[in-house]
Amino acid sequence: MSKITVIGAGNVGATIANDLMIQGIASEIVLVDINKQKAFGEALDIYQGAPFCSPAIVRSGDYPAAEGSDIVVITSGLPRKAGQSRLDLAQANVNIIKDIAPQIVKYAPNAIYIIVSNPVDVLTYVFHKVSGIPENRIIGSGTILDTSRLQSALAKRFRISPKNVHAHVYGEHGDSSFVPWSLVHIANNHIDAYRASSPDRDKIEWNQDYAEVEEFVKTSGAQVIKNKGATFFAVAMSVCHLCKCALNTAGTALTVSTMMHGEYGVSDVCLSTLALVDRCGVRGKILNQLTDEEVGKLRHSAQCLRAVIDQIEI
Which residues are catalytic? Predict the structure, then answer.
């Protein structure tokens, strides 16, 4: 029996709640939003599909309704508007997180907190500073979606299941993210060696197209927004996977945003590297051996995030 509260009943929050229901991840799902009517409508709509899913309660409520939650997912925030700088958006959403944190922590002090709102790395950092929640129970969704985009793109190119693609996006959930290609393996072969081993070798086109694939990963979100107006299906699936891992006793390796304490020479920012996630939240980081060039890229990503943090008011 698990209880998950989702704060924010917009496209992302409502889709997460719906996916939690469909996948049977939680026995109780609570939707909280400043727009109480919207939260009520979304919860009612989701719950009316209950006969087709595992038994669960889905309801809306205020912060007290989150009491006893195992996980709290925070999706609240403003989308970036035309002409608005990233910094302006960051401060606006920082203010929202600062408003939410004391209200929700009062009622769910023992929950694992998953931050999804953007800019996710900055807001995860702010939540660390203002919430009083232990570090291991604060997880930014980070680059789990970027990693999913990478794995699905490589799977298509190499004609293999995404589950056989071990590739991850490190750094900021944003422009300074990167792929540590030295760690990318497909079915136990390094990516550059896989084609020679594959029965599909004559159909696979791969010429170390690192930049091309990274550009696709970085721009695919914008492509979705351009064509349908918003991204919410894939991000909801990635957050639901994260919730499942956070309810499990076995640690799962995920690229989530966590506070850095000198790993790879990076401190006092939140960004994504591989970490083990289980019922305790973040069990710890997996310190893979990166090349000097990859460490440099991670440090650059940290500097980009630090520049934003230094300009916001926490």
Answer: 173
